[in-house]
Amino acid sequence: MMNSDSIHVLIVEDEQVVCSGCRLALTEVGYAVDIRMTGETGLDAALEGSYDLVLLDVNLPDMGGMEILRKIREKRPDVHVIVMTGFSTVQNAVEAMKLGAFDYLAKPFSDGELVLAMEKGMEKKRLMEENQSLRKALFDRFTFGNIVGNNPEIIKIFDKIEKVARTDSTVLVMGESGTGKELFAGAIYARSQRAAKPFVAVDCSTLAPTLLESELFGHVKGAFTGAVQKKAGIFEAARGGTLFLDDVTNLTMEIQGKLLRVLEMQEYKPVGADIFAKTDVRIIAATNQDLRKLVDDGRFRNDLYYRINVFPIYLPPLRERRDDIPHLAYHFLKQFCKKTGKRIEGFSDDALDMLVNYHWPGNIRQLKNVIERLVIMADSSILDLLYIVDNLRLKRSWGQTSVPDTLEELKKMKKKLLDESFRQIEKAFIAKAIAASDGNVTRAAERVGMQRSNFSALIKKHGLSGKKIKQQ
């Protein structure tokens, strides 16, 4: 017997003997029961009250039960209705079910039949609420609010997602590792007509080719050593939903051919099977490589390239959207403060400047990990430049893929490195000296072995002051 302590039932019935019998049967097993003996008062109570189930008589003196059912389903779809009548006909049952009744009881019915119908109704309600909760959690995870960014390119991507989500078109998400490809794929899924069905993500780089084929397409019993029973694959698990294939370039040419058939014919053959199985999935593929180059090198099928490149979305690396770094940094700071229970107000201007100017080869994933580490290590309410330098030891990237070819290019690179890297280290050097000298500039200059005038010039260059640093 299910726990029904908090289950509230409304009985709408004009016969007193039926009301009394139902109340007795339900209260004995712990249900809370209210009774209304007219259609009008019953409808008002159903729409305004907090009921889990409504036991509704079809034949009421002032109002038709079917009309009441229609209005409850229209305005309170969270309330499950069980219809009862003394004139049981197939036609009445079919009409009630079409209007959204959960179940149908023909008078006279036993106490056991009534309680069983109620338990079935509550189990269905629980499953629906659980499903809605899971869908809401999934939508919240993939909401645009979790994709932090005001960069114009990101805004354009949001617009593309809104447009392509409503279709069943295959999408190719391209971007470096750590740019959030799965998050954007999820945003497409959450806004699609398939949002009520599964979202299955597969990292094609984590499994050996032999295992990946079985994981994707399933296998029949005896297909290979160890296949002791039939196993459904990911395409079956994702039926009706969306399949996200990350690192799609790791698929072998053989599996690429099978994926092409899925895209063209909506069918696949499980490993060891003699017949094809039908599928219905929307595919979102992702890669951090240049697919066109892989096609030219003979490492990726040309026909599959054109089938998955129907609607391409390119995610820019973090270094190309530096204006979003402060928003992301504070987003992750808030997230990890909540997780750890720490109270950190934010970053100093110098610290935020350093985060903005760092190259971030690992993109958003790297920034997130860095902020998590900073929060764990933090002992103060402000994360300043000195703290970041001491804890991160960030290595700068020179920002290009090849060694300079000319002296002029070498000089430009040197200047860039000095401007972007040494400037921050120099600034941290000054801040550290002043902080160690309790804000006294003279003692700070002596401490590092510089003349006070030269030390003061560096302070001025970087917009620092002994008083400002002492207060941090």
Topology:
Layout: E1 8-12, H1 16-27, E2 32-36, H2 39-48, E3 53-57, H3 65-75, E4 80-85, H4 90-98, E5 103-106, H5 111-141, H6 152-165, E6 171-174, H7 181-190, E7 199-203, H8 209-217, H9 234-237, E8 242-246, H10 253-265, E9 267-268, E10 277-278, E11 282-287, H11 291-296, H12 302-308, E12 311-314, H13 325-340, E13 346-347, H14 349-357, H15 363-377, E14 382-383, H16 385-392, H17 407-436, H18 441-448, H19 452-461, H20 466-471
Parallel strand pairs: 1-2, 1-3, 3-4, 4-5, 6-11, 6-12, 7-8, 8-11, 13-14
Antiparallel strand pairs: 9-10
Please summarize the sheet with the most strands: 5 strands, parallel
Report the top-level CATH class of the largest domain: Alpha Beta
Q: How many beta-strand segments?
A: 14
| Cα end-to-end separation | 63 Å
CATH architecture of the largest domain: 3-Layer(aba) Sandwich
**CATH fold call of the largest domain:** Rossmann fold
What gyration radius follows from the Cα positions, in whole Å? 33 Å
| Uncertain parts | 395-401
The residue fraction in helices comes out at 40-55%
Number of domains: 3
